Amino acid sequence: MLRVVLSLTPRHFAESWDSGNGSSLGTIMYYRRLIVLVTTVAVLTVEDDADTDFVEGLKFVGLTPPHARALLQRWQGRGEGNPDCFRKYLRYYLVDQRVWAARRAVSVNDDQYLAELGISEPIRQAILDPEFKQIRGTRNLFQFASDTLLHNLDVIFPLQHNLQLTSSDPTTRALATTSRDARREPPLDTKLNLTSSPPPNPRDHTFLYLGLSAHPNGRSLIDSHNDLNLGRHSTFHGSDFHANPAFYLFPDREVADRHRAYAARRCPAAESWLVRFAVPDTFLASLVTERLHFSSEWKRYVWKCRSGRSYPRRHGNCERYGRAELVVGPVFTMPEGDVREVEEGVVQTRITEGNVLRVGHGVRRGEEARQYAFLGPGVWGRLEGVVRGGVHVENTPALFETVCA
Fold first, then answer.
1. Locations of Polar residues compositional bias (predicted)?
2. Are 398 and 26 in contact (CB under 8 A)?
3. DSSP string of 4-21, one letter each residue
C-alpha cells in the first residue's frame, strides 16, 4: 500500500511562503498512483491490516512508534467506563504518561520529559524551539505538549477530506483553503459577522488580543454555529493568576502574535489566528478586578499559582485574588522545571525582573507584557456576550507543504 508522506522539515516551512503576496501556498502535490491517507483514527475502527496505518497516523500526530502501538493496543482493549471518543482517549493517555514520568523521576530536562510522554523528536523540536523560549515559559509545558498533539489529531481529518476531493485527478495541484476562501460563503447565522477588514474602532472599548492555532471540527474559537467558545482556550490548572483554569487575553498585539507564531510552529498543518476583541469598558468596570504590578506580592502569587504547591485563595493576602473575576498584571515566564525547584523561602530572590515577559517589538518594545485573566466559566460566558460584533480575526494559512507520494 502506498502511504502519504507528511514532511515536517524546516525547509518546507520556509519554502511554503509565497514572497509575492506574503501568504502560505499550503501546497499539496499529487502523483498518478496516489491513494488517500488512510487512518483508522478517523473511523475509530481497527482491523489487523490497518494497524500500520493507525500507527502512521499517530506518528503524524506526534507520538513515537512504540507509544503509538501502545495506544493502539489500549484503545482496542478498552473496557467499559473508558471514553469512546478517541480524542479524549489520547488526552487521557498523555495524562497517564505524565503521571508515570513523575513517578519514575527520570526527566532531567524538558526534552527528556517530552520523550517520556511519548512525543516524537520532530514535535519535541517544535515545542522546544529556542526562538519561543520566553513564550513557552508562560505556561505549563504539558499544556503546550497536549495542545500540540490534539491539534495535530484534529488536522488529520480535513487533510484526509482534501485528499479525497482531489485524488481523482492525479495531476491536480491543490491549494489549502484559507479564511479568504471562507469569506465567499455566507455565515451560518448572524451571531458573528465575517468581514474582510477590521470593524471600525469603537469608542469606549479596550482592545485585547489572542493568538492561537485554529481548530477544525467545531473546536475552534468560533464553532460551526458561529458561537464564541472562549472556555475551549482556557489554561490548564496552575496558570499565572489562578490555580483553576483561566482565559487570558493580552493588551499588546505583539505578545499575542508571538503566541500565534508559536502555535503555528507546533501545528504547521493548521491555520493560525490573531484575534482582536473589542471589549466594552463598561463590562471591564463591572468585574471584580485585582491589579498586580511587579512586586514581592506578584512574585509570591504567581509562584503559588504556577507551582501547584498551595491553593492561592487560602493564603493570606492572596485570598482576594481568589475572589476576583478579573486579574490584570505582568506575564510571568519561567521554565516549568525551574518553577518546581523554587522553594518558598527563596521566592523573592529566585524570581526577578528577568522573569517578566517583555514586549518584543513595536512602540512598547522592552516594556513588561501584561495580561488580563478572566476567571471562571460565568465570566467567560458574559464576555462572549459583550464582544459579539467586536471580534476580528487575522488569518495566517498553514505553514508547511504536504507532499503525497
1. 168-179
2. yes
3. B-----HHHHHHTB-TTT
Q: Is 405 exposed, middle or buried (0-12, 13-18, 19+ CB in 10 A)?
A: exposed
- List strands edge to edge, sheet with 27-29: 173-175, 27-29, 402-403
pLDDT for res 274: 93
From the CB of residue 160, how many other CB atoms can be counted at a distance below 10 Å?
Answer: 18
Cell reading at 203? 469608542
Residue 266's nearest CA partner among 213, 217, 220 is 213
Q: Quote helix, strand, coil % in the chain, to nearest 5.
A: 45, 15, 40
**Where along the chain do its domains lie?**
10-178+399-403, 180-396
The amino acid present at 249, given as its one-letter code, is L
Residue 307 has pLDDT above 50, yes or no: yes
**285 close to 225: Cβ distance less than 8 angstroms:** no
pLDDT at 403 over 70: no
Q: State how far the Cα of 289 lies from the Cα of 257, in Å rounded to an integer.
A: 25
Find out whether 392 and 381 touch, Cβ atoms under 8 Å: no
